[in-house]
Design goal:
Layout (H helix, E strand, L loop, with lengths): L4 H18 L3 H21 L3 H25 L12 H16 L15 H4 L7 H13 L4 H9 L1 H22 L6 H7 L6
Length: about 200
């Protein structure tokens, strides 16, 4: 049996995350986070989540990398050595364990939701939501693409909200990167007085 490409990409993601966590050069870390986002986008594409892959590539690899590089232009290039703290690692491990535990009763990945055995027939989304979306795409919207119908019609307000959140976050970060303006009183006190 060939080694699944999803597992290979996941191993690359894990290796990249470990390298990013150990780096002290912030420029290299910013570049590697962009690579991490591209690897994530590839993994999402293989999992047939193309809309999420586009968002990850655009926001994660594109905008976030540009904003990090802009921030690096205004700050230090290397991270100051901090003492190692164990509490964040404990929190991450406990959260990861809880998330894995929560997925144990899920149907198998790629389950079509139909079939005689319970494992193949208990994907809940395939019993009610997905058939309605597929039927509505053909009958109500006359669109050939179900993903377009879901994002633009069924989840139109949600997509608009996500776009507004991303836009607001980008504006906020850009405002933080603008050099601070001096107060008017500081400008006046710094100006030389007229001797006349």
């Amino acid at each position: 049996m060939p080694f699944p490409i999803e597992a290979l990409l996941f191993l690359f993601l894990l290796a990249t995350a470990v390298v990013i966590a150990r780096l002290r050069d912030l420029f290299a870390a910013a570049m590697l986070t962009g690579m991490f986002s591209l690897l994530s986008a590839g993994l999402f594409t293989l999992m047939d989540a193309v809309d999420v892959a586009f968002t990850e590539a655009a926001v994660g690899a594109g905008i976030a990398t540009v904003l990090m590089l802009g921030t690096l232009a205004l700050t230090e290039k290397r991270e100051n050595q901090q003492p190692t703290r164990t509490l964040p690692f404990v929190v991450v491990l406990l959260t990861g364990a809880a998330l894995i535990y929560g997925t144990l009763d899920m149907p198998p990945y790629g389950s079509p939701g139909t079939g005689p055995e319970p494992a193949a027939g208990n994907a809940v989304i395939h019993h009610h939501v997905a058939p309605d979306y597929i039927k509505g795409t053909k009958e109500e919207f006359k669109l050939p693409n179900v993903v377009t119908a879901v994002l633009a019609s069924y989840r139109g307000y949600d997509t608009l909200g996500e776009t507004a959140v991303i836009f607001t976050a980008a504006i906020g970060v850009l405002l933080l990167l603008v050099p601070g303006r001096k107060r008017k009183s500081e400008d006046e006190s710094a100006a030389p007085e007229d001797p006349r």
